């Protein structure tokens, strides 16, 4: 980062906070501050703030609900963008086509769809996050994933150019997508009309399954590791006898071994050390290298 002789964000002070605590914005509730924390109120403000970052060589990051991110204890020496203002939380429904801004909360959207009798995203029940984070991660599980109902995505790249990915250009894979642009702005989803009561029943069933199998009320980031092809990371961790293993305030969940939960006082360093240890022990036991699902910043 270039040492700024003047404030890089002159004129944008209303949307930029300096040395802002990121722990309050992550599901883990751990991690240090962001040098700049930016909440644009429009695409134009986002473009201008990103232009300043480019000019002053400030690294950019984008945060949704922080449900899949581990922020280091020393924080982020860069600009962290959050698209939570009104302009990025719009929802428009036209028959079975739904347009949702990147900052829309996936659980609230799911509830709205269920009540409107629109089927297709029940697989998101119990998965915390925003549409932006959900698309980046192709959120989902054994009941399906968000990518399968996406018909287009509007994005902005680091140069500020806004453009669309159409359905035939998009590839959604296991917890990944081919979207390379840094900022996802909105998406349109193609849903199917269905009886709201039946939809609610199915959504509750999926939510109950998650609640019964995952430690949803603890601080975590969901699954730490991706499942290796045809295998379960949780089962591999369990077979290595690691349930309940602790480093400082971080612990391998006894309910679901692929969750590392953070108890009060846990640091990001504790979580990182435990992740490393789990990976090593699983390798020793089964010669399989587990790949992170959690996004570790920077
Ligand atoms: C209790 C719990 C249970 C979970 N269960 C599941 C599950 O069953 N299935 C599953 O898939 N996940 C699960 N997760 C993980 C998490 O909910 C998902 O990955 C979710 O999609 C993260 O969304 P987010 O908005 O919080 O993104 P963040 O965690 O904030 O970010 C995740 C990634 O997306 C990027 N990103 C965020 N917003 C944007 C944007 N607008 N444009 C471009 N990139 C962006 C970030 O930079 C980062 O790389 C769980 C997490 C928790 C805490």
Fold topology:
Layout: E1 16-21, E2 33-38, H1 43-55, E3 60-63, E4 69-70, E5 76-82, E6 91-94, E7 97-101, H2 106-116, E8 118-119, H3 131-137, E9 140-141, E10 144-145, E11 150-156, E12 162-166, E13 172-173, E14 176-177, E15 183-190, E16 192-193, H4 196-213, H5 233-239, E17 246-247, E18 250-252, E19 260-262, H6 268-286, E20 295-296
Parallel strand pairs: 2-5, 3-5, 4-20
Antiparallel strand pairs: 1-2, 6-7, 7-15, 8-16, 9-10, 11-12, 11-15, 13-14, 17-18, 18-19
Bound molecules: flavin-adenine dinucleotide.
Residues 27, 62-69, 83, 102, 127-130, 132-134, 136-137, 139-141, 175, 183-184, 214, 216, 220-222, 295 line the site of flavin-adenine dinucleotide (FAD).
Give me a quick take on this structure.
The chain is α+β, with helices and mostly antiparallel strands and 298 residues long. The chain is built from 6 helices and 20 strands.
Describe it for me?
The chain has 3 domains: 13-86, 2-Layer Sandwich (Uridine Diphospho-n-acetylenolpyruvylglucosamine Reductase, domain 2), CATH 3.30.43.10; 89-213, Uridine Diphospho-n-acetylenolpyruvylglucosamine Reductase, domain 3, CATH 3.30.465.10; 233-296, UDP-N-acetylenolpyruvoylglucosamine reductase, C-terminal domain (Uridine Diphospho-n-acetylenolpyruvylglucosamine Reductase, domain 1, Alpha-Beta Complex). It is built from 6 helices and 20 strands. It has a 5-stranded antiparallel sheet with strand order 6-7-15-11-12, covered by helices on one side. Strands 1-2-5-3 form a 4-stranded mixed sheet, with helices on one face. A 3-stranded antiparallel sheet has the order 17-18-19. It is an alpha+beta fold and 298 residues long. Strand 17 (246-247) and strand 18 (250-252) form a beta hairpin. The chain starts with 15 loop residues before the first strand and ends with a strand. It is globular and about 55 Å long. Bound molecules: flavin-adenine dinucleotide. The site of flavin-adenine dinucleotide has 32 residues, from strand 3, helix 3, strand 9 and strand 15.
């Amino acid at each position: 980062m270039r040492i700024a002789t003047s404030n890089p964000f002159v004129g944008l002070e209303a949307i930029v906070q300096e040395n802002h605590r990121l722990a309050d914005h992550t599901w883990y509730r751990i991690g240090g501050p962001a040098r700049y924390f930016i909440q644009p109120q429009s695409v134009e403000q986002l473009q201008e703030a990103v232009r300043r970052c480019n000019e002053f060589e400030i690294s950019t990051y984008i945060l949704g609900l922080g449900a899949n991110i581990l922020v280091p204890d020393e924080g982020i020496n860069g600009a962290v963008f959050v698209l939570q203002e009104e302009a990025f939380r719009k929802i428009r429904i036209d028959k079975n086509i739904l347009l949702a801004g990147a900052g829309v909360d996936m659980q609230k959207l799911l509830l709205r769809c269920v009540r409107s009798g629109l089927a297709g995203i029940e697989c998101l029940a119990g998965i915390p996050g925003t549409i932006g984070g959900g698309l980046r991660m192709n959120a989902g599980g054994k009941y399906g994933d968000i990518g399968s109902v996406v018909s287009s995505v509007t994005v902005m790249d680091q140069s500020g150019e806004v453009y669309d990915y159409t359905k035939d250009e998009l590839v959604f894979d296991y917890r990944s997508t081919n979207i390379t642009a840094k900022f996802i702005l909105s998406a349109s989803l193609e849903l199917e009309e269905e009886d709201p009561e039946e939809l609610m029943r199915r959504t509750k069933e999926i939510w109950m399954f998650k609640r019964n199998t995952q430690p949803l009320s603890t601080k975590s980031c969901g699954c730490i590791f991706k499942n290796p092809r045809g295998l379960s990371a949780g089962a591999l961790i369990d077979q290595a006898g690691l349930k309940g293993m602790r480093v400082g305030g971080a612990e391998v969940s006894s309910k679901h071994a692929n969750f590392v939960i953070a108890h009060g006082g846990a640091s990001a360093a504790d979580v990182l050390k435990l992740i490393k240890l789990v990976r090593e022990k699983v390798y020793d036991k089964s010669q399989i290298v587990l790949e992170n699902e959690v996004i570790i910043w920077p």
